[in-house]
What we know:
Layout: H1 2-9, E1 11-13, E2 22-26, H2 31-42, E3 46-51, H3 60-63, E4 80-84, H4 90-100, E5 104-107, H5 114-119, H6 121-144, E6 151-155, E7 169-170, H7 181-200, E8 208-214, E9 217-218, H8 228-237, E10 242-244, E11 250-252, E12 254-255, H9 256-272, E13 282-286, E14 293-295, H10 296-307, E15 312-314, E16 329-330, H11 333-339, H12 347-362, H13 367-387, E17 393-395
Helix pairs in contact: 1-13, 4-6, 6-7, 8-10, 8-12, 10-12, 12-13
Amino acid sequence: MGLRARAVEDVVMFADVYAGRQVFVTGHTGFKGSWLTQWLLDLGADVTGYALAPPTQPNLFDAAGIGAVEAKRPRGAGRFTDLRGDVRERRSLGQALKTAAPEIIFHLAAQPLVRRSYAEPRLTYEANVMGTVNLLEEVRALAAFGRGPRAVVNVTSDKCYENLETGHAHVEGDPLGGFDPYSSSKGCSELVTAAYGQSFFSEPGTPRVATARAGNVLGGGDWGEDRILPDCARALHAGAVVDVRVPGAVRPWQHVLESLSGYLWLGANLWRDDAGAHAGAGAWNFGPGADSNVTVREVVELFIEAWGGGDWWPARGAAQQPHEAGLLLLDAGKAERALGWRATWSVADAVGAAARWYKAFYDGAEAPALLQRCRGDIAAYCEAAVRSGAAWAISEAST
Length: 399
Ligand SMILES: NC(=O)c1ccc[n+]([C@@H]2O[C@H](COP(=O)([O-])OP(=O)(O)OC[C@H]3O[C@@H](n4cnc5c(N)ncnc54)[C@H](O)[C@@H]3O)[C@@H](O)[C@H]2O)c1
């Protein structure tokens, strides 16, 4: 890890946009939000997080001590303000934004589970749709006083598309839809963002607003309901056989750092759009490479291999599950052409890193060690990005 950490210090990430920047992250106590917050702090951003409590027990935010004031902070690390609040409460969100005066916002707070959305559709729409409206309203109010952020990235999902399950990889202009309340709420969040973008944020000097659509992500520290890797880790740790629902379903798997590098690079490009042309505004897919569209079964087998042994079987009663899309593919060609972003890790790299993180957790590693493991994964990922020629990670040694 020491060697890796030194190597990554030579890498200019995201054109150095985040050092010293005021960044507001909703949903910072969640799985993606925790990784994003730590990465931003290590990039030197001052981060204000706004979210409800971590959604699961255990959770990455507490397990790794995200944002904790360390005795020996990395050089240049930013300051962290941890606020607890609900995006459905506009006043409280507005107050937090006013105080933080962010330059860049990442909106991740949401009810993110398909199955829960069948049980609680109203809550799902309130959090995912009205939460987006509340955020954009408050951004609009700040902008009216010349205090608006320069860039807003709204994180939606690959599930926002009308998915006909034909094997077509979705491009950004495809019709939006969503069979279940979660998917539809993310389609609605997209429509809300597009309407605000066109109606209020298209003139020079107004905030630049974009949406980011990524697929199922995996990585250390995810304990979300119905997610396959935590199920694997829990079962293997208990010496049990892993129960696998829909083993034949193909998903666009990617490590959480892949989607985050996309969000961060999108945010940096919105920020850098000095001519005020809003060139980065609109919708962006950040999907994995075609070789990462593999079945649940293959992912489980990769996890078991990286864990060091174990077994799986198809779960009984899988036929009675509520409808879940069987095939969902994303085309990230626009991000590659316009931003020079492309997926970096193979599915085996991604699953291997996650399996090692969970193994460390279940072997009893404490917060500082788990935080170092997160940093080690970020460093390894950045090195791979430099080697693959990603536009967002430039090695100073090669310039
Ligand atoms: N994890 C994935 O595979 C995946 C895939 C595509 C899109 N996404 C999207 O990424 C975002 C983050 O997902 P995640 O996997 O980290 O989920 P998560 O459940 O781990 O985290 C959700 C976060 O939102 C917060 N939150 C929920 N409701 C809130 C509310 N009403 N007010 C304030 N905060 C609230 C939670 O406290 C938590 O911080 C979500 O918008 C999700 O839809 C996730």
